[in-house]
């Protein structure tokens, strides 16, 4: 592993160790609107401070919480707490994401970690994706499931018409609420779907882990799957719902 990847792992281990016994009551407090547009909690800011401590000497950090931190030709894009609402509700599906963009503008390293169960996924400078556990030196190829029974649909609550179409087609899904984590698990599920406006913090690292899968990234939706037919079917559904919405607006419905 590179020094950068190792530093990311140490940062995640420090955060995980702090969370291991119980949440500090002050972490639930809300502070102010962060650079990503959401209100930051003290837990978000704690996680950010750990990443800044471990990664700031590698380049300029762009964080969902505080925006640009430090200087440098290398940019490190972080979401210090992916799935903040889950974490603050003690729902065990939350983690972190880090992506490094080198001086040539190429994303050459990424790390996504599930703090709730210790799964960690890394994209190395050799362009390989590896999966391991926090506090363990063992890494392997990402696990994959050929006949996945469910997909992951982030932001499903805002897309009722699309949900109805998917139900009619028998496309089962869950909506766990942490997009970087969901993208990291793309090898094990039927699909990962996000529909709505999105920010670079949420997707940079997760998408870097999806190399070799079928991926569609548009302005307001992202589809990832092992199966090209599933990707095409979902995109057709999205376009159909958009068409129906336009007709409803046109007819004043």
Automatic annotation (TrEMBL):
<dbReference type="GO" id="GO:0046872">
    <property type="term" value="F:metal ion binding"/>
</dbReference>
<dbReference type="InterPro" id="IPR000760">
    <property type="entry name" value="Inositol_monophosphatase-like"/>
</dbReference>
<feature type="binding site">
    <location>
        <position position="82"/>
    </location>
    <ligand>
        <name>Mg(2+)</name>
    </ligand>
</feature>
<feature type="binding site">
    <location>
        <position position="81"/>
    </location>
    <ligand>
        <name>Mg(2+)</name>
    </ligand>
</feature>
<feature type="binding site">
    <location>
        <position position="202"/>
    </location>
    <ligand>
        <name>Mg(2+)</name>
    </ligand>
</feature>
<keyword id="KW-0460">Magnesium</keyword>
<keyword id="KW-0479">Metal-binding</keyword>
<protein>
    <submittedName>
        <fullName>Inositol monophosphatase</fullName>
    </submittedName>
</protein>
<dbReference type="Pfam" id="PF00459">
    <property type="entry name" value="Inositol_P"/>
</dbReference>
<feature type="binding site">
    <location>
        <position position="79"/>
    </location>
    <ligand>
        <name>Mg(2+)</name>
    </ligand>
</feature>
<feature type="binding site">
    <location>
        <position position="64"/>
    </location>
    <ligand>
        <name>Mg(2+)</name>
    </ligand>
</feature>
């Amino acid at each position: 592993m590179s020094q950068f990847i190792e530093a990311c792992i140490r940062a995640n281990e420090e955060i995980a160790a702090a969370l291991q016994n119980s949440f500090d009551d002050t972490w639930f407090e809300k502070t102010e609107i962060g650079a990503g547009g959401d209100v930051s909690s003290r837990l978000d800011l704690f996680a950010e401070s750990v990443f800044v401590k471990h990664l700031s000497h590698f380049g300029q950090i762009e964080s969902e919480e505080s925006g640009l931190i430090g200087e440098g030709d290398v940019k490190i894009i972080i979401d210090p707490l992916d799935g903040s609402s889950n974490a603050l509700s003690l729902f065990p599906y939350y983690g972190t994401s880090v992506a490094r963009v080198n001086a040539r503008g190429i994303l050459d390293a990424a790390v996504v970690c599930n703090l709730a169960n210790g799964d960690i996924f890394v994209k190395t400078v050799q362009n390989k994706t590896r999966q391991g556990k926090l506090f363990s030196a063992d890494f392997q190829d990402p696990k994959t499931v050929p006949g996945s029974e469910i997909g992951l649909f982030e932001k499903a609550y805002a897309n009722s018409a699309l949900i109805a179409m998917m139900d009619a087609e028998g496309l089962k899904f869950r909506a766990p609420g942490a997009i970087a984590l969901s993208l990291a698990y793309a090898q094990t599920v039927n699909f990962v779907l996000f529909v709505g406006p999105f920010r670079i913090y949420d997707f940079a690292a997760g998408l870097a882990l999806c190399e070799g899968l079928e991926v569609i990234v548009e302005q307001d939706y992202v589809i990832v799957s092992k199966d090209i037919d599933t990707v095409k079917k979902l995109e057709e559904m999205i376009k159909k719902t958009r068409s129906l919405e336009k007709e409803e607006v046109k007819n004043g419905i």
